[in-house]
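User: Predict structure, ligand flavin-adenine dinucleotide.
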Amino acid sequence: MQRDHDVVIVGGGPAGISTALHLQAVAPALRIVVLEKERYPREKICAGGIGARAFKLLEKIDVIVDCPCVRFDAVAMRVAGETVVAREPWAGVVVRRIEFDHAFAKIAIERGIEVRDGAEVTAIRTTAHGVTVEVDGEALTARAVVGADGVGGIVRRQIGFPRGELRAQAVELDTGAAPGDLPRDTVVFDFSTTELRGYAWDFPTQVAGEPLVCRGVYVLRDPRSRELASPSAEPRTRLASYLAERGLAIADYRTKQFAERGFEPGAELAAPRVLLVGEAAGIDIATGEGIGQAIEYGALAGRYLADALAHDDLGFTDWRRTVTKHHLGWQLALRHALYRTFYSHRRPRIEPLMPSMHQLFRVGVQDFAGAPMSKLAVVRGTGQLLAAYTRAKLGSRRSTTPA
Ligand SMILES: Cc1cc2nc3c(=O)[nH]c(=O)nc-3n(C[C@H](O)[C@H](O)[C@H](O)COP(=O)(O)OP(=O)(O)OC[C@H]3O[C@@H](n4cnc5c(N)ncnc54)[C@H](O)[C@@H]3O)c2cc1C
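Assistant: Predicted complex:
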C-alpha cells in the first residue's frame, strides 16, 4: 500500500523537531513531515531555561541552534532560609522560545525535512495498515504518527490515552533587576514558601537585546491534594507576593500562564503506529523542566523509529520500556520520586536538611549540564543523604516518643 509519508510528526516544538532531525540523521531516505498548527516564529509561554546536556545531544548530529541566549554558570536553590549555589561552568542557557523554536525548525527545513507551519491537525485515525492524519481538509497517510503536540495535544485525545493526572500551572513575567537578585550568571529556584506545592524562579533573560529577569511561579496540581483551596498557593497570588518582597508590583507587568504535564511512571506512551514524545508524553514534574527532556525524547525516538520502520514492527510495544531504560526515563522517574517525597507529609522534616545536601544538588546540576559527574561529589552526596535520612528518622522517633 503506497502512503504519502513514512512518519507524520504532529507538533513543531522542541520534541517534534528533535525527533525529525534525529530520525533523518539515521534514516535519511525516510519521508518525514512535521505539522505545526502555528506559524513560525511562534510563541510558547516558557521561561526558556535549557541545560547544556540537550545541546551536547544535538552536537552529536551536528546541530547547533543559533539564537540569542543568556548563558548561566550556576544554579541556586533557596530553601529553609539558606541559599545553596552549585557552580558549573556552562550549565545551560536561557532562550526566548519565539526565537529558539524558530531557529530549531529552520535547521530541519535546511536539512530537507518537510515542516509545514499553519497546519493544524484536526483528526487522526489508525488502522492495521497505516495512519490517516487530517490537516487543512487534506488527509495525509503514513506508516506511523508521532504525538509531539504538547500538553493539550490532539494525538493523546484522539487515540484515547488517559488525560494524565499530574498537572502544574506556571505563571511568569519579565522585569528589570531588583534588590536581592543573585548575579546574572545564576538561575534561582526559590522554595521559601513552605505551603506552596512548587517554587518561584528568577532566570536572567534577554528580550530584544535588553537584559531582563524572567520571574515566575510553578504550582503542582495533584488531584489527591486540596492545597489549591488555599489562596496563597494560587500561582498568580504567590507571584504577586514574591514580587512585592522585591519591591515590584505585579500590576505593572503582563503575566502569562500555561499548564504543564508531568511524566507518570507506568503510564502508556505508545499505541500501535502511535508514539508520544516530549510534553505529550510527560516531562519532569518536580521542576517543570521540559525543553531538554523534549530534545532527549526526540533523540531516543529518532533511533527507535528508524529501527521499527526498518523492521516494519510498528506496534511500539516496547517504547515505554525503551524510555524507562534510558537516561531520560530514569531521570524522569527519579524526579517523580523526589516530587512524591518532598511534597508529602515528610516535607517539614526534609526541608531543613536540604541545605546540608549541597553535594547531591551539585550532582543534579552536573547531570542537567551533561557534565561528567564528579565521583567525589557522588560519594559525598550519598553520605549527606544517609546522614540526613538518619537525622530525619531520629527526629521523627523523638517527636513520637512520649515524655
Ligand atoms: C510558564 C512556563 C515556564 C516554563 N519554563 C521552562 C523552562 O525554563 N525550562 C524548560 O525546560 N521547560 C520549561 N517549561 C516547559 C516547556 O515549555 C515544555 O515542556 C516544552 O515546550 C515541551 O516541548 P514540546 O515540544 O513537547 O511541546 P511544545 O513546545 O508545547 O510544542 C508542541 C507544539 O505542537 C503544536 N500543536 C499542538 N496541537 C497541534 C495540532 N493539533 N496540530 C499541529 N500542531 C499542534 C503546538 O502549536 C506547539 O508548537 C515551562 C512551561 C511553562 C508553562
